[in-house]
Amino acid sequence: MDPFEDTLRRLREAFHTGRTRSAEFRAAQLRGLGRFLQENKQLLHDALAQDLHKSAFESELSEVAISQGEITLALRNLRAWMKDERVPKNLATQLDSTFIRKEPFGLVLIIAPWNYPLNLTLVPLVGALAAGNCVVLKPSEISKSIEKVLAEVLPRYLDESSPNLGRIINQKQFQRLRALLGCGHVAIGGQSDESDRYIAPTVLVDVQETEPVMQEEIFGPILPILNVRSVDEAIEFINRREKPLALYAFSNSSQVVKRVLTQTSSGGFCGNDGFMHMTLASLPFGGVGASGMGRYHGKFSFDTFSHHRACLLRRPGMEKLNALRYPPHSPRRLRVLLVAMEARGCSCTLL
C-alpha cells in the first residue's frame, strides 16, 4: 500500500474511534503543542535564523509568542467554544430546541507557507486540534530548518497517530525573487547572495502594472512603487485587481485611511501600520476571494475547522400544531404560518 494512503487510512480510523472529540483529548494535544514551543524555543530561534535570518527578537515576537498566545487562548476557552450555541427562534419554533453544534470535520490538511513558517503552521494547527480534528501537517519545503524541526520534533509532543509530511528544499523561491529585481529600477537595495539565499531589502521605482512584480504575491523583501495621481486612482487600481490578503493604507489624513477602508475589500486592513493585526487573537486572519478562504486566530480558528451543524429538536406530541402546515390549505392558515415564521427572536411561549 502507498505509505501516504496508509497514513490517511490510520488517521481516518483514529478519528472514527471518537477519541479526538473529548475536551480532555483536545486539551492534551494543545498542552503538548505548548510544551513543544517552550522546550524547543532556542532550537526554533536557530532554525528561523538559518531559514530567514530572523533575529531572536523578531522570531520571538512574530512567530513563537503569537503561537503560544493562541494555545493559551484556546485552552482557556475550549469548553466554552465546544458548547452548543443557542440561536433565536420564531413563534413557530418556540417549543423547540434550536442550536448550532460545532463538529470536527474529521481529517484536515494544513499546508503552510514559508514567510512565517512557524506562526502560519502552528496557529491554524491550534484551531484544528481544538476543534477535534486529525491533522496532516505539511510545513513549507522552502523553510528547510523549520520544516526539519516540525517534522522530527513536534510529533513527540502530539498523539502519535497529527504525522508531518515534508519535502526537500530547493532554490526556486530565491531565483523567483531575484528575477523580480529586474522590474522597474532599483532605488534602494538590490544586492543578493545566492550561496546565502539573501536578498537585501529593496525598493523598486518606475514599476509598470504589467510587470511580474505586480502580478503575484512577492513573499520577499521587495517593495515595488507604482505612482498614481490621486486617491481615486489608487482605489480604482486596487479594486480592478484580485482582493489582497492584507491592505495597508498610510496617510497623515485619517479621512484618506477611512476612505480606502470603506471603498476597498481585503482579507485584513491596517491604517498607518502593517502586520500588527496579525498579533491579535481577537481579529480574524484570512483572505477573501483569490487571496484565500476561511479565517483563523483564536475562536476563528476553532470555527474554521468545525462544521456548524444546524439543529432543531421538537418534542413529540406536537401534531396539533403541525396540522396547520398540512392540506387542506386555506388563506387563514397561510397567514398564521407566515406570522409564526417571522424572524422576531421573540421570547413568548405558546399556551
From TrEMBL:
Family: Belongs to the aldehyde dehydrogenase family.
Highest taxon listed in the record's lineage: Eukaryota
Domain Aldehyde dehydrogenase: 9-154, 162-307
UniProt-recorded Gene Ontology molecular function terms: 3-chloroallyl aldehyde dehydrogenase activity; aldehyde dehydrogenase (NAD+) activity
InterPro entries per record: Ald_DH/histidinol_DH, Ald_DH_C, Ald_DH_N, Aldehyde_DH_dom, Aldehyde_DH_NAD(P)
GO biological-process terms attached to the record: aldehyde metabolic process
Keyword Oxidoreductase (UniProt): yes
Organism: Piliocolobus tephrosceles (Ugandan red Colobus)
UniProt keyword Oxidoreductase present: yes
Name of one Pfam family that matches: Aldedh
Name of the molecule in the record: Aldehyde dehydrogenase 3 family member B1
Keywords: NAD, Oxidoreductase
Gene Ontology CC: one annotated term: cytoplasm
